[in-house]
Amino acid sequence: MNRSEVADDVRRLRESLGELPEPVVRPALVVVSGLPGTGKSHFCRRLAERVPLAILESDSLRKVMFPSPCYSKEESLHLFQAVYKLLEELLRRGITLALDATNLEEHHRERLYHIVEQTGAKLIMVRVEAPPEVVYQRLEGRLRRADPSDHSEADWEVYNRMRFSVERIGRNHFTVDTSKDITPIMDKIVHLIDQ
Question: CA angle, corner 107, sides to 48 and 75, nearest 5?
């Protein structure tokens, strides 16, 4: 990938976000981590109802860059190279963001920690979980396309394959069980963003 190709990818992703919230003095990056079907996108949408932020949802951004995604390792590397550049650019502009992606492995999260350190943004890590039986029901509903705002194509097989790659988050983080009331933790996160 040369620089102009990456810049073009970043521009396309930025344009897909639509209108951005007003800049703030010290923006936050809310990194949402979790397996498919645990409720990451639902959590991000609920958070966006409470505070002005832009959601960078990896599933929808992938489809901006790859209209018929194959989910290969190379495709993911290409996607996240552009996503990380966009994150850094928007944080430098003072835009608070939520990154909605699985973010399961610590070596991938290390890149996010570095971006936050370089931009002076606040880092808020959130691990999203749900009991397997709840996830199974959600993923079965996804097959019937019950939720039009759900851009993921991950199913129960993908969930089971990915659950072995979940690594402990090396920074302070919140853990949210989306099968329960998420309001108390949401209140704490909103408070941190607003500080």
Answer: 75
Q: What is the pLDDT of residues 147-186, one digit of tens each?
A: 555 556 666 787 778 788 889 999 999 999 999 999 999 9
Residue 21 lies in a domain: no
* Res 150: pLDDT: 52
Give pTM, 2 decimals. Answer: 0.90
Give the number of other Cβ atoms within 10 Å of residue 144's Cβ. 7
Domain with 127 in it = 3-14+26-194
pLDDT on residue 162: 79
Bin 120: left if φ > 0, else alpha if -120 < ψ < 50, else beta. left
pLDDT given at position 1: 60
Q: Do the beta carbons of residue 156 and residue 108 sit within 8 Å?
A: no
Instruction: Say which residues have a Cβ less than 8 Å from residue 23's Cβ, sequence separation at least 6.
Output: 93, 94, 95
End-to-end CA distance of the chain: 39
- Number of compact structural domains in the chain: 1
The stretches in the chain having pLDDT less than 50 are: none
Residue 126 placed within a domain? yes
Q: Is 9 inside a domain boundary?
A: yes
Contact status, residue 71 vs residue 163, Cβ threshold 8 Å: no
Residue 168 sits in a domain whose CATH number is 3.40.50.300
